[in-house]
Amino acid sequence: MVTKKSIFIIGAGPGGLATSILLAKSGANITILEKSDKIGGRTSSITENGFKFDLGPTFFLYPQALEKVFQSVGLNLMDEIEMERLDPQYRIIFKSGGHIDATNDIKVMSDQIKNFAPEDAKGFSKFMNENREKLRKMEPCLTNPFLNIFSLLSPRLLKLLPMVKPHQSLDTYLKRFFKDPRIRLAFSFQSKYLGMSPFVCPSLFSILSFIEYEYGIFHPKGGCNEITKVMAQVATDNGVEIKLNEPVEKILFNENKATGIRTKTGDYKADAIVINADFARAAQTLIPNKQRSRWKDNKIENKKFSCSTFMLYLGIKGRYDVPHHNVYIAEDYKSNLQDIECRHVLSKSPSFYVQNACVTDPSLAPKGNSTLYVLVPVSHEHENIDWAENKNNYRNLIIKELEKVGFVDLEDRIIYEKVITPADWSNQYNIHLGSTFNLSHNLKQMLYLRPRNRFEDCEGVYLVGGGTHPGSGLPVIFESAGITSKLIAEDIILN
């Protein structure tokens, strides 16, 4: 009798759940160990006093990536999760004046651009056409592993170089289509999904805004956390075991081969282990430094990490008449980015994002009330900022900023409030430096140079999520699950 292989996944975030579903039909025993009392990781929810908020991601885009996961077990994503495509996708508000309601309607979008810069009006369709081809050619890079240096020299990748222009910044690339800096910001603020400035973010990430316009932005009823809830149900329906309240204390080794996992309840033998947790924190706490030849503690500490986020989750009386998603661009955007990435100080006039979800989904709040989710990009943890000292003052500053841009009498309308700082992301959610977007996506930390899906330092250990290839963001994390599950099938299950 053949003994079934045992695959253990550390963390019930979207990457771990997707990997478990993709492996569910493999014949192996799949177990997810989750330290929290609920699934989802950063894609979980905060539910208090009848108000419900997504903890982390609020944008759901490119459903095709998750559709592949559902199809692997014979399901249709849209049949399992109720979603509404948003139009406008979001409103971009320039504090210097004016706004754009982002839409995939070429004429409407071009007319809005024309109001800012008549000569840029034709740039939108040109941008879409070029980036449609760019994504088509780049797709194999997002769905295949980069496990050694030779993978960087593949003919497929080398042919891409003239189009992706890896050493060109996103802002510089966009100058080919848009002369007005405000329009360029409207097509490059998405670099914040990667925790990067558009002035240093590689130009290949122009595909982020293209994907939004081409495939749309959706709101899953109940929030993005509903996606991971449904994924967990799909996983368990297909034989995956999910153990909550079971934090992993360490990975067990025989020389350099991982053989199991230790938790407070005991030891588990494993044929393969998938880490779906913040890479830097998990590597340093679960794997002894001596076991890591490439990713030792000192190397991790010298890597560049993304920005963090200061969060306000507000339950309020009534509802504001603004769209579902709203992005407010600081008048001096470059200085704001310098505060975050270089000076590591708190901006007095920051950019921020506000989700007003109840205009689409009233179920998220008690009748007559609504929710506001406020995200302010800030520096990751740094000695320049003491959050114990600055938390309340910065909260008050952000409330005043919100009132300035139209959220009148907000302070008086707050019924429920929760604040999360970079220190909280680090201490409560185990995110290294509170860097909510993980390792930065600069050229020295991408593809083969990122921690690999088959973790190169330890036999039998695999990675999934934002800390490995291809990178951060829900669609990309689902692609990483596809890569990792295929490697495990080839290495472990089929052997």
Characterize the structure shown:
The protein has 495 residues and is an alpha/beta fold. It has three domains: 6-81 and 222-302 and 441-493, 3-Layer(bba) Sandwich (FAD/NAD(P)-binding domain), CATH 3.50.50; 116-212, no CATH class; 307-432, no CATH class. Helix content is 34%, strand content 20%. It is built from 17 helices and 20 strands. It has helices at 14-23, 64-71, 77-80, 106-116, 123-143, 155-164, 170-174, 181-186, 207-215, 225-237, 279-286, 297-301, 333-343, 387-404, 410-413, 422-427, 474-493, and strands at 6-10, 29-33, 45-48, 51-54, 60-61, 83-85, 90-94, 99-102, 217-220, 241-243, 248-254, 257-263, 266-269, 272-275, 308-317, 325-329, 352-355, 369-378, 414-420, 461-463. A seven-stranded mixed beta sheet has the order 8-7-16-17-18-15-19. Strand 7 (90-94) and strand 8 form a beta hairpin. Helix 1 (14-23) packs across helix 17. It is globular. The protein starts with 5 loop residues before the first strand and ends with a helix. The model has no long low-confidence stretch (mean pLDDT 93).
Going by CATH, the architecture of the largest domain would be 3-Layer(bba) Sandwich
CATH homologous superfamily classification of the largest domain = FAD/NAD(P)-binding domain
Task: List segments where confidence is low: pLDDT < 50 over at least 5 consecutive residues.
Answer: none
* CATH C-level class of the largest domain: Alpha Beta
Please tally the β strands and state the result. 20
Cα Rg:
22 Å
Per DSSP, the total helix count is: 17
Structural class: alpha/beta
Q: What characterizes the major β-sheet?
A: 7 strands, mixed
In whole angstroms, the N-to-C terminal distance is: 15 Å
Bin the strand percentage.
15-25%
Number of domains: 3
Strand order of the largest sheet: 8-7-16-17-18-15-19
